[in-house]
Each structure stands twice: as structure tokens, then as C-alpha cells.
Amino acid sequence: MKIIIIAGCQRSGTTLMGQMLGAHSQGFLIDEYDSIYQWANAWLNNSKNQFDLLNQSIKKASSKYVDKRHKIKEFNDLSDRFLVLKAPNLTFYANEISLLYDEISVVYPIRDVRAVVASMLQRKQPTMITNQINHFNKSEYVHQNYSADLKKLMDDNTEIHIKATIIWKIKSLLIKQFKVNNLNPLLVKYENLISEPIEVAKIMARHCHIKYETNMNQHHRYMDGKGPGKTKRDRKIDDNSLKKWNAQLNSEQLSEIMEIAQQTMSNFDYDN
């Protein structure tokens, strides 16, 4: 089956990119609100119950659509559609994904660290950061390559904006694992997506071997309700969030964030 995975760091545009690809007339989006990780775990481990769990996720996922896709209730209803998995926590499983027989394309968002950290802090919900730390702690690769960062994440005295910055750094750099495992990830800057949404949508379509459709830039017409991160699915693409971090982070926080993230930002060609 053809599957498109949206990996990368939370708050980097994963929801928007998932919805754009999921709005394609042949696409079907499954995300965190659809119990995606329960199924994904079974999928990666080739468990016997993977199709039962997939059907449960599909039934939940169909409710986000306002077109005929809201009638899709199980795998057999998908026909010749492709799945779009908005699943940033699959970022930790590049090796396992590479062993699957499905036709897989990977889209990997990246976003200015300051905007990501500000967004994480604005939510005032430590659950996401705690969950990410738990994922990092289970990753042998993270233990081997980011032990000092992991130690800071595990320290209760580390300030929350520092933890958020480290999470951004590690999850952004994990794109290397997708490259090493020959998954050919497409790096997409959130800022480019906002400034040139049609051109970037076409780039994503080419990378995923699907035909570009205007649906992709009109996702708000095909979905409603709220997505992960309380994102309104019927919200058009806009640039309202690009520089909000200016008013959300103080000078001391910005200095500490950039001290940690400067090199990684440069690696991804961000001008600071």
C-alpha cells in the first residue's frame, strides 16, 4: 500500500502538511486523534491485530472529512487511496520503517526553533514534553548519540524552554536516520510552506509520486473540527504564527535557546 509519513518535530508544521496531503482526492489522513500509534506499533511489529487496529483508526479518521470520505469506515473502503500518517513520533523508528514492504514516502518538516519552543510553551501542557522525553529515553540511538542532552531532559531542574529546545534539536536531526536507512526524506521548511504554499505543495506531491491537486491548498474545504495541537482543520494557510515568538519569549530565553540550537539552525540554513 502507498503510505506517506509526516515525521519530524511537533509544532513544526506536521499537522498542516498532513492535512494538505490528506486533502488530496486520493488521500486519507490518519493522525494522533485517530489512535494512530496503537495501530502503528502493531504495523511496525507485524502483529496479528494490525488490521483490526487500522480499521479502528480509519473509522475515527473519517469523521474529520466533510466530503464523501466521511463514509469510509474500514480498510476495504479505501480502494486505491493512499494513507497519510501524521505521526511525528514515528521519527524514532526509521530503521523499522525501512524494513516494511509498503511503498513509503517521508515528508520531514523543519521550523525555526524559536517558533517551535514558543508554541510548545504557549500550550501550557507539559504532557507533550514529558511524552517526548519518554520516547527519547527508550531510544537506543538517542542514548548513544545525545546522552548529555538526554541527561538535561531527565533533570527536573532543567527549565521547560531548555527542554523544548533540546527536543527540537534532536528530533530535527533525526532526519539523518531516515537518510541512512534509504528512506529519502523530503525536508520542508515551514516558513517556505507558508510563503509559497502552492509551490511547496507541488514539491511534496512530486516527492510522494502523486499528482498535484488544488485540493492540497484548499484543505480547509475538505475537513473540519480540530486536529492535534488544537489546530482548526478549517483554517486557511496564513502567516500569523511566523513571528509570534518575538512577543512570547524574553531576551534571556532567546539567548539560552540559541546557545543550544545555533549550530543545528545553521545546519538547516536558517539565518539568525
From TrEMBL:
Domain of life: Bacteria
Pfam assignment, any one: Sulfotransfer_3
InterPro entries, A to Z: Gal/GlcNAc/GalNAc_ST (IPR051135), P-loop_NTPase (IPR027417)
Gene Ontology MF: a single term: N-acetylglucosamine 6-O-sulfotransferase activity
One record GO biological process: N-acetylglucosamine metabolic process
Protein name, entry field: Sulfotransferase domain-containing protein
Organism of derivation: Marinicella pacifica
